[in-house]
Amino acid sequence: MRRMADVAVAVMVLVLALSMLLMTTAMTVERRKGGGEEPKHKNAYATMMYMGTPRDYEFYVATRVMMRSLLQLDVQADRVVIASVDVPLHWVRSMEVEDGLKVVRVENVYNPYRADNPNDRFKLTMNKLYAWNLVEYERVVMLDADNLFLQNTDELFQCGQFCAVFINPCIFHTGLFVLQPSEKVFKDMLHEVDIRRPNSDGADQGFLGSYFSNLLDMPMFHPPTNGTKKLNGLYRLPLGYQMDASYYYLKLRWNVPCGPNSVITFPGAVWMKPWYWWSWPVLPLGFSWHEQRRNTIGYGSEMPMVMLEVIFYLVIIALTRLARPNFSKLCYRRFDKSVMIYHAGLKFLAMASIIAAYVIPFFIIPHTVHPIVGWSLYLLGSFSLCSIAINAFLLPTLAVLTPCFGIFGVLLVMACPWYKDGVVRALALFAYAFCASPIVWNSFTKVLATLQIFLERESFLPSRLNESPPPPGFNKLY
Fold first, then answer.
1. Residue 464 pLDDT more than 50?
2. Domain ranges of the chain
3. DSSP secondary-structure letter at 29?
4. How many Å apart are CA 63 and CA 48, to the nearest integer?
5. pLDDT tens-digit profile of 17-39?
6. Which of 27, 47, 114, 442 has most Cβ atoms within 10 angstroms of its Cβ?
7. DSSP state, 49?
8. 26-53 residues labelled b (16+ CB within 10 A) or e (exposed)
């Protein structure tokens, strides 16, 4: 058992080391000048950034990755970030110097619809209206940070005064839309916000849906054959410019017939955004986003924390092995109080320590590391914390680590690239869970049985902590 556990630790550390080496050496960040300069192009890709949510750093990383990916696609447009004045200055400098972005600092637009949508994620989304104030540009493509570009979309700059995609049959999505900047429209929008124009969701999408309420009746956008001609009016954009990630998971491939398959959006739950390490292989597209990050800004900011956690976990494994005899004496000592209460409390403590070993590592891993690094660090952390319970309560190693092996197995099942479609993938997961559940239950009952046996054997219950245990082979039960 111990040899198997040692091999498992060695494999996890090796995978983690190789992953970190890959993350830190795969790219060299290119320094570029930017910020505070005159527009270099007549069009722009823009996004916004504001503070005050629990996930500010994650969206900062996502913004940088998206904007750097546009640079790799050789877009012929400026890249602009509309940043509120409270965005940290070192973030602004990184975006300007390292990413070559133009950062426009703005005051926050008060959202009077907060009572309708108290989610902090949307409290300052009205800052998106500042896109209409970028009057130095002829056209602006406004973006949310959770867009994943597959190809160049400069043809969107030929669209009219406002163009957006209907990923919902009746409501257009504001994760990507084209606009013609206008100071007059900008001021009118601010006035409409002040007088609380009807808003279906209390955020920017509901407001813009009300402001451009007739967009559903407008014609579909088709880029003119003359690449320099700009259309006038309002247009609906083909679905290929905002492909909801959920469309992919049924077929495990893209086949959107409406327009070029250019941009993926992730409009679902915020905790399943692609930049989180646990997003893959739960959601297959998460790996694509992280590969884009690896090839753009890299993972240098998270690696020091990852290294500290690896050292911390390895130290725990070593210390628990060395302190095994003292651990067991502390746990299996006799108390003069009720034996039943003592037994129940010890069982609860043992099971709680095992559960904590599988929960705590999940929350202390840097959220935006690469999935391979994240899952490797999670498994190493779970193993190290399980070693505390194993050595303290003298539990069977394989039984305690069964969930760890089960998690590794389900990751392999989800990551398998040869599924025909999402239905087959779901059935494979169900089959794996069906086969694994009896093994997990058997391990659970084995842990409880081991605890009960040790508690009943007097040889494991010295009356005093410093009392020597009975001679080997002595046991009143026999």
1. no
2. 2-6+302-460, 30-294
3. P
4. 8
5. 555 555 544 443 443 444 445 67
6. 47
7. E
8. eeeeeeeebbeeeeeeebbbbbbbbbeb
Work out whether strand 147-149 and strand 263-265 pair parallel, antiparallel, or are unpaired.
Answer: antiparallel
One-letter amino acid for residue 107 of the chain: E
Q: Token pair of 365, please?
A: 């891993």
For the chain, the residue count is 478
Question: CB of 467 within 8 A of CB of 366?
Answer: no
DSSP 137-150: SSEEEEE-TTEEE-
Domain at 30-294, CATH from 3.40.50.2300, 1.10.10.10, 3.40.50.2000, 3.90.550.10: 3.90.550.10
Residue with tokens 């940290």: 88
98-134 per-position pLDDT tens digit:
999 999 999 999 888 877 767 777 788 999 999 999 9
- Identify which of 391, 377, 379, 375 has the alpha carbon closest to the alpha carbon of residue 318: 391
CA-atom Rg of the chain in angstroms: 28
DSSP string, 418-460: T-SSHHHHHHHHHHHHHHHHHHHHHHHHHHHHHHHHHHH-GGG
Interatomic CA distance for residues 64 and 57, integer angstroms: 11
Q: How confident is the model at residue 186 (pLDDT cuts 50, 70, 90)?
A: very high
365-395: b or e for each residue (b if 16 or more CB lie within 10 Å)? bbbbbbbbbbbbbbbbbbbbbbbbbbbbbbb
DSSP-derived secondary structure letter, 220: B
Q: Report the distance separating Cα 473 and Cα 209, nearest Å.
A: 80
